[in-house]
Amino acid sequence: MTPLRLLLVDDHLMVTEALASRLSSAPDLWVAGRSTTAEPNLLDIVRGLRPDVITIEVEPLGAAIGEFLERLVAVRPEARVVVLSADHDQAHAVEAARAGVSAWVAKEQGAAELETVLRGVARGESWFPPAMLGAIMRELRADVSRARQQEDSLDVLSPREKDVLVAMMDGARGRQIAHDLSISTDTVRTHIRNIFAKLDVHSRLEAVRVARAAGLRPPEPSR
Questions:
Q1: Nearest 5°: phi and psi at 191?
Q2: Per-residue pLDDT for the chain (223 aa), expressed as one digit of tens each?
Q3: For the chain, what are the domain ranges?
Q4: Potential cystine with 121: which of 17, 80, 88, 112 (Cβ 3.0-4.6 Å)?
């Protein structure tokens, strides 16, 4: 059986080294790479390593947890993302679930339980602490309710605005969108402002969330 390719991300590289040493003893797990959360080229590392599972500490991300995890999930949709956290903030767990994260594991848990979670998410399972599930389910149900009200919301966007929104869903930023669509960065900014106004949102994260709820999907990555 081919081992699961793991990418370990933490605020402290020493933590990933210790975790890699522990996980590498399992024949079905292979640590393909390690990185810090602050690494500016982390998304490029993900593209290059093509991991099956990514573990990441989210505390250093602060208020940007949801947006960053959205981008991480978008850049490698085939990978499962597992949050390792000493933070028991339910709001952060909700943001992670909305972003498409597969699991949220408290750092107090043992390595054996983490191994179980890693194998589980690779099979398509999800794992969140039972104490958080109630809040997560309430918020996700509320999202579904809002989505039903927004089913036709994308109809107000022009074709080019939809192109920009799809690029945002794929984690692209201003210059990359401009390059991919052969338009100027000023035009990209104008389209994003129009998207925010038409969808009545105030951030990229909200715009992407509305798009996903309304059924818009980025194209499948080429293999």
A1: -60, -40
A2: 689 999 999 998 899 999 999 998 899 999 999 999 889 999 999 999 999 999 999 877 777 788 889 889 989 999 999 999 887 778 888 888 888 899 999 888 888 899 999 999 999 999 998 888 888 888 888 777 766 666 667 888 999 999 999 999 888 889 999 999 999 999 999 999 999 998 888 888 888 888 887 778 766 555 4
A3: 4-142, 150-213
A4: 80
DSSP 87-142: ---HHHHHHHHHHT--EEEETTS-HHHHHHHHHHHHTT--B--HHHHHHHHHHHHH
Per-residue tokens: 171: 């984690």
CATH: 3.40.50.2300, 2.60.200.30, 3.60.20.10, 3.30.450.40. Which one for 4-142? 3.40.50.2300
Structure tokens at 16: 């990933």
